[in-house]
Design a protein that fits this description.
Length: about 50
C-alpha cells in the first residue's frame, strides 16, 4: 500500500470522526453533510489509489 493512499484513508476516517462529533454537538445538517461528502471522497480516493 502506498503512503499517499494510506494518508487519504486516514484523513477520511478523521473526517468521519468529525461528522460524528458535529452530530453530537447539534450543528446544522448541511455542515455535517458537507463534511461527510468530503470524508467519502477522501476514503474513495485512497481506496482507488491502492488498486
Amino acid at each position: 500500500m502506498s503512503t499517499g493512499a494510506m494518508v487519504l484513508i486516514v484523513f477520511g476516517l478523521f473526517l468521519v470522526g468529525g461528522c460524528i462529533s458535529f452530530v453530537k454537538q447539534g450543528l446544522p445538517k448541511s455542515v455535517v453533510a458537507l463534511l461527510a461528502v468530503g470524508a467519502v471522497f477522501s476514503i474513495a480516493a485512497g481506496v482507488l489509489k491502492i488498486g
